[in-house]
């Protein structure tokens, strides 16, 4: 399960059965948005999320769409 709903600039993956943190990816700004995954033309899976669009009181300002390729 992927979650980007936090004020720190990170996206996280959790094990949905145990709640254990599996992975944390850095973002240029907080991502209080819903991530999405898709399969690319090569068959590799990608994770994308929008980061930014918030008040500077919540950390670095930026507006970006960030993609990660999953192993």
Beginning-to-end CA distance, first to last residue: 15 Å
The structural domain count equals: 1
* Helix and strand element order: EEEEEE
Provide the β-strand percentage band.
Answer: over 45%
Structural shape: flat
Tally of individual helices: 0
Radius of gyration from the alpha-carbon trace, in angstroms: 13 Å
Structural class: mainly beta
Helix content: under 10%
Name the average pLDDT: 88
Number of strands: 6
Low-pLDDT stretches are none
Tell me the strand order in the biggest sheet: 1-2-3
Question: Could you please describe the fold and organization of this structure?
Answer:
The protein is mostly beta strands. It has one domain. 0% of the residues lie in helices and 45% in strands. The protein contains no helices and 6 strands. The protein has a 3-stranded antiparallel beta sheet with strand order 1-2-3, with no helix packed on it. The chain has a 3-stranded antiparallel beta sheet with strand order 4-5-6, with no helix packed on it. The model has no long low-confidence stretch (mean pLDDT 88).
